[in-house]
Amino acid sequence: MTPLTSCLLLSAALFAIGLAGALMRRNAILVLIGIELMLNAANLNFIAFWRYGPNPEALTGMMFVIFSIGVAAAEAAVGLALIISLYRHTKTTNLDEVDSMRG
Amino acid sequence: MIVAILTVAGAVAAMSLRNLVHSVLALTLAFAGLAAVYLQLGAQFIGFAQVLVYVGAVAILIVFAILLTRDTSATITVISGSWISGGIVALAIFGILAWTVDHSAASQGSTSLHPAASMQQIGNALMLQFALPLEIIGVLLTVALIGAVTLAMQENKETK
Amino acid sequence: MGNAADQVFVILERWLVGHAPAELQPILSSLLSVIALLVVFASLFAITTILERKGLGRIQNRYGPNRVGPFGFLQPLADGIKSLTKEDIVPHAADKVVHFLAPVVLVVAAFSLYAVLPVGRNMVLANLDAGVLFFFAVGSVMELTIFMAGWSSQNKYSLLGAMRAIAQMISYEVPLILASVTVIMAAGSLSTVTIVEKQAGYSGILPHWFVFTPWGFAGFVLFMIAATAESNRSPFDLPEGESEIIAGYYTEYSGFKFALFFLGEYLGMFAISGLGITLFLGGWTAPLSFLTWVPSYLWFFAKLLAMIVIFIWVRGTLPRLRMDQLMNFAWRFMLPMALLDLVTAGIWHFLAHGIARWILCSLLVVVPYVLLGRGLTQGWKLEKRVYRFAE
After folding, report:
1. Of the partner residues A23, A32, A43, the one whose CB lies closest to the CB of residue B86
2. Strand, helix or coil at A63?
3. Closest Cα of chain B to A34: distance in Å?
4. How far from chain centre, in Å, is Cα A70?
5. From its phi and psi, is residue C45 left (phi > 0), alpha (psi between -120 and 50) or beta?
6. Which parts of chain B have pLDDT scores under 70?
């Protein structure tokens, strides 16, 4: 197993765990955590391909990860603010109970 | 290898523990493990930035959110339809990804060792080639900050 | 002679390592450095506790500890034995694992901060390319351990203390990092070793320390204020304000774990002072050009002790802030000043050498300081207080 393969496998595992968490848990914060995990898995892929790709001196993968970390931070801040204001309205963070838009 | 196992264990624990704070702590373990992987891959800057942003900022934000939204109804996970289908979908995706990774030509390719990028190179790339994305990220972060504050403050103003 | 004394520890380490088999040498070398760092900074912690107690005692017009050993200087030893033999109480409701992990992780993180601090010429454990970033990354782990401690105790005072600590540390981390970024910009490097080397020259007898520039001075002051807040020391010691929330996040800790917290807090303070010295005060370089014969590590520790004295002095002098004052100060004063300082550093870099640069940059720092200070204190009633019953 080459180093690149093991990196990609790790990232695939992380992505699957994050996806499973986001789909299976009903708590809004845990869903957000799952999404963060998936983002991280994608970052790991970028780094792995940058490192073992044909031209690492281009730094493109690395730059992408830097920006992706920035976006992830922004996403977490807005997401958590949303969860807090959701909690203020409904007194719950359980996503199954937030169904006031159901027709 | 140990780091990878730790990371996956942290991630699994984060997604499966009952106690929300415990899962955040497990999550930080996963993030730290990922940072270690980045360091092994020679991406020093990314590794430290990962710790700084995820452990230092995102985890603490999540912790704050958990304490501010203490849910009175205990989060007992009942095995429901969505639970099973979610698990199946995740497993299927992992299976497909693993199979693709194992069989793709890209992963059999070059495994030669390349020198790690120095801080100087990263700085130059950020300031010259990627200056516009950097500025946009700055604007995005500012907008996100203001948006988050307004979202979280909103209710306060109405009640006061 | 001067050179030999300067490098004595480096040579000693090489000599000791030279006896080992070749494959063990890197491990042995780092092990030796780690042990040296542990011993030196742990004993510095002991010295500082006694100095602080005696210094505070003098400031408050009393003696301070003077029973154990000559002038009470063996007091830390007695304290250590006491905390080791005390019963380790874990509250029944506490989250046992997290409660145990918090002090351990805190001390480990605090010690790993020293990995990137150059304590002397050729005396740094890891010359990382991104040393300053490493420092802040590890520092942010310490915030999380404080939360772990406060939350796992299941005590409302602990939780309040932890929340206060985190809010304070996050708020002051922003000016702290911005103040460091000025230096990083000027030195063009994130490596602590390179930053020290950039400040090594002399013009006349004065060194090229960054603190001797308008932006550097402002940055240093901002850095030190933020550092005081980061290390939870008075006047920013709200997280453990004993008159309000008992002892904050370590209310439920006793015996050796409490000692570990104490150690972690002081180590954090030393480390952040060390970073301040590295960034602004020229690290291990001598303050005057004819004093370069004094070994470099002595200069580092002399500067560190001076910083500790300032910390003790400030603690003995200033009253504790209120939470809203603390936050207002961070976001309304520290943050704009740090941003302006960043701009000033950039302008300084691109202006020609000369007196005009000094005047312009000083104005850029001083005028906003005065305006901001005036603006923020407007509406305050700042007259002499009248005590009705204390006459």
Report:
1. A23
2. helix
3. 7
4. 12
5. alpha
6. 71-82, 105-117, 154-160
**C126 in contact with B, Cβ within 8 Å:** no
* DSSP structural state of residue B127: I
CA pair distance B126, B117, nearest whole angstrom: 13
The label of the residue with tokens 């060792």 reads: B113
Q: If you compute the radius of gyration of chain B from its CA atoms, what whole number of angstroms results? A: 20
Per-residue pLDDT of chain A (103 residues; tens, 9 = 90+): 677 777 888 888 888 888 888 887 777 888 888 888 888 888 888 888 887 777 666 778 888 888 888 888 888 888 888 888 888 777 777 777 767 776 6
Classified as helix, coil or strand, A94 is: strand
Q: What percent of chain B has pLDDT over 70?
A: 80
In this complex, do C191 and B119 lie within 8 Å of one another by their Cβ atoms?
A: yes
For chain C, the chains sharing at least 3 beta-carbon pairs closer than 8 angstroms are B
C-alpha–C-alpha distance, residues C75 and B49, integer Å:
42
DSSP code per residue over C149-216: HHHHTT-HHHHHHHHHHHHHHHHHHHHHHHHHHHHHHHHT-S-HHHHHHHT--EETTEE--GGGSHHH
Contact B43, A44 (CB under 8 A): no
C-alpha distances out from residue B67 to B20, B60, B92, Å: 10, 11, 35
CA–CA dist A29, A86 (Å, integer): 11
Closest by alpha carbon to C106, among C169, C157, C154, C56? C169
Which residue type occupies B43?
A
The residues pairing with C202 across neighbouring beta strands, listed in sequence order, are C207
Distance CA(C190)–CA(C180), nearest Å, equals 10
Residue of chain C nearest B60, judged by CA positions: C144
Q: How many CB pairs under 8 A join B and C?
A: 62
Rounded Cα distance between C295 and C285, Å, is: 9
Interface membership of B77 toward A (CB under 8 Å) = yes
H/E element, B39: helix B20-40
In the DSSP assignment, the letter for residue A27 is B
C143 and B22 in contact by Cβ < 8 A?
Answer: no
- Could you say which residues from 45 to 74 on chain B have a Cβ atom under 8 Å away from some Cβ of chain A? 45-46, 49-50, 53-54, 57-58, 61-62, 64-66, 68-69, 71-73
Interface test with C, best of B39, B51, B68 (most C CBs within 10 A): B51
DSSP C320: P
Residue of B nearest to C177 (CA): B52
Q: Is the alpha carbon torsion for A75, A78, A79, A80 positive or negative?
A: positive
The tokens of B63 are what?
A: 């912790």
**B64 in C contact zone (CB under 8 Å):** yes
- Interface contact B93, partner C, CB < 8 A: no
Band the pLDDT of C283: cuts 50, 70, 90: confident
- Which residues on neighbouring strands pair with residue A27, listed in sequence order? A94
CB-facing half-sphere around the CA of A99: CA atoms within 13 A: 6
Residue keyed to tokens 């308008």: C214
pLDDT tens, C149-181? 888 887 788 888 888 888 888 888 888 988 888
Phi, psi (deg, nearest 5) at residue C154: 55, 50
